[in-house]
Amino acid sequence: MNDPVDPAAPVDPVRAWRRLADASVLLDGFHALKHALRFGAEVSVAVTADRAAALALADELAPDVREWLDGLLTEVPAATYQGLVPRPHPTAVAALAVRPSRATNLAALAHTPRTAPVVVLDNPRNLGNAGAVIRLAAGFGATGVVTTGTLDPWHPTVVRGGAGLHFATAVERLEVAELPPGPLFALDPEGDDIRGLKLPDDAVLAFGSERSGLSPELRDRADHLLALPMRPQVSSYNLATSVAMTLYHWSATGGAPTASQASRPVS
Ligand SMILES: C[S@@+](CC[C@H](N)C(=O)[O-])C[C@H]1O[C@@H](n2cnc3c(N)ncnc32)[C@H](O)[C@@H]1O
Questions:
Q1: Are residues 132 and 244 in the same domain?
Q2: What is the CATH number of the domain that holds 112?
Q3: Do 92 and 158 belong together in one domain?
Q4: Is the CB of residue 39 below 6 angstroms from any atom belonging to ligand 1?
Q5: Greatest alpha-carbon span in the chain
Q6: If you average pLDDT over residues 13-42, what whole number do you get?
Q7: How far is the CA of 254 from the centre of ligand 1 (A)?
Q8: Is residue 2 part of a domain?
Q9: How far is the CA of 126 from the centre of ligand 1 (A)?
Q10: Is ligand 1 within 6 A of the CB of residue 237?
Q11: Which of 5, 31, 66, 91 sits 20 to 30 Å CA-CA off 160?
Q12: How many domains does the chain have?
């Protein structure tokens, strides 16, 4: 017969981790956990190999989430921490969070009027690029990041590249035919110079694959084709840097909250 379960007994974080890991989002390192908490993630379990060091980091870099971390973080032996994560992080902090529901994200993406663009990555191939774009979208307060094609925008490597900022914007995979409403601006070196245009807040900004650029399907749907300034002998920019320049252009021509308007820092 099993021993009776004491409901008041403390939860064993390692058992909880093993039970939840497959269905959860891994927040790898102090900064990912900090960002996820700031943007409302539901964190189920958080461990560290050095609680004092993690709380000292919070005192120094993120006093706004210090109390949450104090309540959440359980210290485990270094070997236990290393056994829970694929690649130990220098801060020796890791946590599991609940992935936001697809329905909630789709509602955020479809909501109009929109106050900030949606970024579309058309069949991206590189997980690091996707993570960097999600971090950019969070920093600029974009409504969301949509990917088309087979790459999973919630893949652990993308989440790692996004530094926990998947919780600050709506991240989903969709078909080209299902893209959110709004004027579709597709970025392509053959387009019109972006500097002649003010991007509207409800823009859908689409970027092509690292390998083959924009798909024919996306080109067909585009309302405008826009080019970033580039010398003739250079063929193209990296995908994430193209997103950065385009979001910067949107912000510099009137969009995006200023740092003083933003309610929570993205650092
Ligand atoms: C690495 S590039 C793709 C290069 C690809 N070999 C091609 O044939 O287009 C990835 C994406 O970044 C954007 N991009 C890169 N350089 C650009 C530029 N100068 N102007 C506009 N978009 C650009 C485009 O959306 C492009 O599809």
A1: yes
A2: 3.40.1280.10
A3: no
A4: no
A5: 77
A6: 95
A7: 24
A8: no
A9: 14
A10: yes
A11: 66
A12: 2
Instruction: Look at phi and psi of residue 38 and say left if phi exceeds 0, alpha if psi is from -120 to 50, else beta.
Output: alpha
Six-digit token string for 146: 């949509």
Q: What is the pLDDT of residues 118-144, one digit of tens each?
A: 999 999 999 999 999 999 999 999 999
Question: pLDDT confidence of 10, banded at 50, 70, 90?
Answer: low
Pocket test for ligand 1, best of 242, 245, 248 (most atoms within 8 A of CB): 242
Q: Which domain holds residue 231?
A: 102-252
74, burial (CB in 10 Å: exposed 0-12, middle 13-18, buried 19+): middle
pLDDT digits (tens, 9 = 90+) for 156-182: 999 999 999 999 999 999 999 999 999
Report angle CA 132, 133, 134 to the nearest 5 degrees: 90
Nearest by Cα to 246 from 202, 191, 206, 190:
206
For the whole model, what pTM was predicted? 0.92
Pocket test for ligand 1, best of 147, 219, 236 (most atoms within 8 A of CB): 236
Whole-number pLDDT of residue 264: 46
Residues 6+ apart with CB under 8 A from 15: none
CA proximity to 106, closest of 158, 39, 174, 41: 174
pLDDT in tens, 57-104: 999 999 999 999 999 999 999 999 999 999 999 999 999 999 999 999
Residues 138 and 243 placed together within one structural domain of the fold: yes
Residue 242 corresponds to which tokens in the numbers above? Answer: 């193209």
- Is 266 part of any domain? no
Q: Is 2's pLDDT higher than 60?
A: no
Q: Does residue 261 have a pLDDT over 70?
A: no
